[in-house]
Amino acid sequence: MKCRICGQPASINLRSHKTAFCETDFLHFFERRVRTTIRKYRLVGKDDRPVVAVSGGKDSLSLWYLLSRMGIAADGIYVDLGIGDYSRVSLEKIKAVADRLGRKVFIFHVRDIFQMGIGEVARAIRRVPCSACGMIKRYVMNRVCMDRGYNLLLTGHNLDDEAAALFGNVLYWKKEYLWRKDIVLEEKEGHLSRKAKPFFLCSEREVAAYAIISGIDYIYEECPFSKGAKTLTYKGILGRLEESSPGTKLMFIKGYLNELRQMKMHDEAAGEAKEVIYCETCGYPTLGGQCGFCWTLKKLGLSYRVEFEEYG
Ligand code: AMP
Ligand code: FES
Ligand code: ZN
C-alpha cells in the first residue's frame, strides 16, 4: 500500500478514512483533523488560558505535544492517585514531556491530602476505586483552573473511549449519563471551568501512532484498578463492527453529537436551563449539601485542603 500524498510505501492504513499514509504525511493529516475539530466545535479560542489534564498515557501526552505544535501553550495538571509504581512511572513520563515542551505541571498528591492512596479512599467511602478516582480527579482538575486562573481544561478522551461509554449508556438506557457527555462543556462562572476534548473524533489507534511517530514516551500499563471488564467488552464489540464496516465508530459518535446539539438548542430556546446547587464548603456543583470531595475529607476526619506541587 502507498501513501496517498507522496506515493512512498505507507506505514499506516486508515480504513475508516479509506486511505493510507507514510509517517510524515500521517502526522500532517492527524494534526489537520484535530485543528479542524478545534475550529468546528470552538474548543480553544485565542483568549483562552488552557491547562491539559495529563495522565502519562498516550492520549493526554500527545494532546499536550500537538497543542504546543499548534502554538497553543498550555500547562499540565496531574493527579497522583498514589498507586505505587504505576503513579510514579506516569509522573516520570509527564515530566519528560513537560521538559521537552518547557511547560509547568501542577501535581496533586492524593496521599498528601487524604493520607492514603485512592484504593483505600474508595474503600473508606464504600465506592469502587474508579468512581472515587473519577470524582477526585474531576474535582482537582477543576480546582486548579479556578485557583490558578485557567479557564479551560483539556482532556485526552478519544473516540474509542467515548464510543464504548456511549454504547454502554445506550444499551442500558442510562438516561442520567446519556446526554451529559459532550465534546465541549460550558463554564459556570466562579464554579466550573470550560472543558473540551480535542481527540473526541480520533481513534485510539491513530493517537497511538501519533505518539510513537512523535517520539512521545508514554506509560503502556493501564491503571491496576482499570475500568472493569465491561468497557473492554464494549470496545471489543465496537472493534469487530469497525472491522466489518470501517467508519462505524465515527458515525456513531458524530450522530450523537448532532443529536445533542439539536437538543441543547431546543432546551435553550425553551429556556429550560437546569438549576445548579453549589457545595456549601467549596462552591463546587453538587446534588445538595457538600460535594463528594468535601464530604470524603469530612468522612475521613480531615479538614478541607487542596495543594499542588509545581514542576517546571
Ligand atoms: P481515562 O478516563 O483514564 O481514559 O482518562 C481520560 C483523560 O482524563 C486522559 O486523557 C487525561 O486527559 C485525563 N486523566 C486521566 N487520569 C488522569 C490523572 N491521573 N491526572 C490528570 N489527568 C488525568
Ligand atoms: Fe481511576 Fe485507576 S482508579 S485511573
Ligand atoms: Zn465541596
Walk me through this protein's architecture.
With 312 residues, the chain is α/β, with parallel strands linked by helices. It has one domain (28-311): HUPs (Rossmann fold). Helix content is 49%, strand content 12%. The strands form 3 sheets. The protein has a 7-stranded mixed sheet, sandwiched between helices. A two-stranded antiparallel ribbon has the order 1-2. Strands 9-10 form a two-stranded antiparallel ribbon. Strand 4, helix 3 and strand 5 form a beta-alpha-beta unit. Helix 7 packs across helix 11 (248-269). The chain starts with 11 loop residues before the first strand and ends with a strand. Adenosine monophosphate binds at residues 53-55, 59-60, 77-79, 81, 137, 155-157, 161.
Shape: globular
What is the domain tally?
Answer: 1
In helices, the fraction of residues equals 40-55%
Model regions low in confidence, pLDDT < 50 over at least 5 residues: none
**Beta-strand content:** 5-15%
What's the order of the H and E elements?
EEHEHEHEHHHEHHEEHHHEEHE
Helix-and-strand structural type: alpha/beta
CATH homology superfamily name: HUPs
CATH architecture: 3-Layer(aba) Sandwich
Q: What is the assembly state of the chains in this entry?
A: single chain
Q: What is the β-strand count?
A: 11
Please state the average pLDDT score. 94
Task: For the largest sheet, list the strands in their spatial order.
Answer: 7-8-6-3-4-5-11
Measured between the Cα atoms of the first and last residue, the distance is 44 Å
Count the DSSP helices: 12
Bound small molecules, deduplicated: adenosine monophosphate, FE2/S2 (inorganic) cluster, zinc ion
Rg of Cα set:
20 Å
CATH topology grouping: Rossmann fold
**Main sheet, how many strands, which sense, barrel?**
7 strands, mixed
